[in-house]
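User: I'm designing a mutation panel for Bifunctional protein FolD and want to avoid disrupting the core. Could you give me a predicted structure to guide residue selection? Please restate the sequence first so the numbering is unambiguous.

Assistant: Good idea. Sequence first, for numbering, then the predicted structure tokens:
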Amino acid sequence: MTAKIIDGKAFAAGLRERIAEHVARLKSEHGITPGLAVIIVGHDPASQVYVNNKARQTKEVGMNSFKYELPEDVSEDEVLALIEELNNRDDVNGILCQLPVPKHIDENKIINALSPAKDVDCFSPENVGKVAIGLPGPVPCTPLGSLMLLRDELGDLSGKNAVVIGRSNLVGKPMGALLLRDSATVTIAHSRTQDLPAICAAADIIVAAVGRPEMVKGDWIKPGATVIDVGINRVNAPEKGEGKTKLVGDVEYSEAAKVAGAITPVPGGVGPMTIACLLANTVTTACLANGLTPPS
Ligand code: NDP
């Protein structure tokens, strides 16, 4: 058996088209153009690439993009003052501060300063709580993208045995909450979990969010299961030449693809969904700020 490869890149492109249609309707029917503000502190090249991608895709779906590039030595107070200004602007519906920030700035203070109504990364305790009890609001982007891929692949997730490997606040915990909301039977595994292969063997759905290259082995997977590989790990690739590297997920892809029913590749699976879901969250917060029902 060879697993179906879940094409996250194509799904994300389709999602961005649907977001663009929604943005066009918000403009024509309500005179609202959602806006996303991105703050970047310092000159980390990887962060620059992420921020530029976010800004480009924001504009491509017809939303306003506001980019604030602050110098490495900007004071914490200046960043907090900018966030306060953006919190109070009607044309800004989403604010994110690209992490990590330089060491002299307290990440928690930044997260706490963001208005929960504009916290499109869904870091605030208020928004995390809303996800847990099923109230409308932003949803953590990577778990939301993973859930969309699962629903698209499997339809109703009700009653499925789902194992989430990893319990980070960013991925594992919200992923578990979202699967539970969809009535899956959820197990969240972590570094203290005993006999992970046996737990995986009973899973209809595996979401791997560990950060350990190819840790989940092909022979752990139940035949026909759906595997979502969130992991992004850079490893040496001597087969590509001296000093070369490549990206791999948390799942041993070549073996898992022989057993699973469907699987996300790395790259090209969950990764492209994350920014698309950030845009979806900005539409959600724009709708909620204007008393409109967000798209489901
Ligand atoms: P964290 O390091 O915050 O969390 C890793 C989790 O894995 C922890 O809960 C840890 O358990 C658990 N873990 C570690 N070792 C084992 C083990 N041997 N067996 C079972 N569980 C284990 O990582 P993140 O959640 O932030 O990210 C996970 C991966 O997803 C990374 O590769 C990251 O790069 C990727 N990622 C990808 C995104 C995308 O857009 N596709 C976005 C965000 C992340 P414990 O809590 O006990 O320590």
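For picking mutation sites, this is relevant: The pocket of NDP is lined by residues 142, 165-168, 170-172, 189-193, 196, 209-212, 230-233, 270-271, 274 (CB under 6 Å). The mean pLDDT is 97.
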